[in-house]
Design a protein that fits this description.
- This protein has no helices and 2 strands.
- The protein is largely without helices or strands.
- The protein has one domain.
- It starts with a strand and ends in a 77-residue tail after the last strand.
Length: 103
């Protein structure tokens, strides 16, 4: 189940249960969202944001380490906050807006 929107900045995963664990939020603006509202059952949900420079992957389980975080601005990100097992899975670019997970 996927939600596609230009603005999901006020969305949370409070309503998602086990069936919604794979739910992804796609948005141009999730910069104010945090993972504090993501339950253990839906911890696989990723946040997409204009600014992920302060994000960490502590809520991302190893079983989804092949998934990527996509953002308009990852230029200030470092891999120091990310698990060693998923360090190589991050793309660093000024523009990833057209990326997909098909690869």
């Amino acid at each position: 189940m996927f939600l596609y929107s230009q603005d999901l900045s006020n969305c949370t995963t409070d309503a998602t249960g086990y069936e919604g664990a794979y739910l992804f939020l796609y948005s141009q603006d999730l910069s104010n969202c945090t993972t504090s509202k993501i339950s253990n059952q839906s911890q696989r949900t990723f946040l997409y944001s204009q600014d992920l420079s302060n994000c960490t992957t502590r809520y991302i389980p190893l079983s989804v380490r092949r998934l990527f975080l996509y953002s308009q601005d990852l230029s200030n990100c470092t891999t120091e906050s990310f698990s060693k097992l998923i360090k190589q899975l991050f793309l660093y670019s000024q523009d990833l807006s057209n990326c997909t997970t098909r690869f």
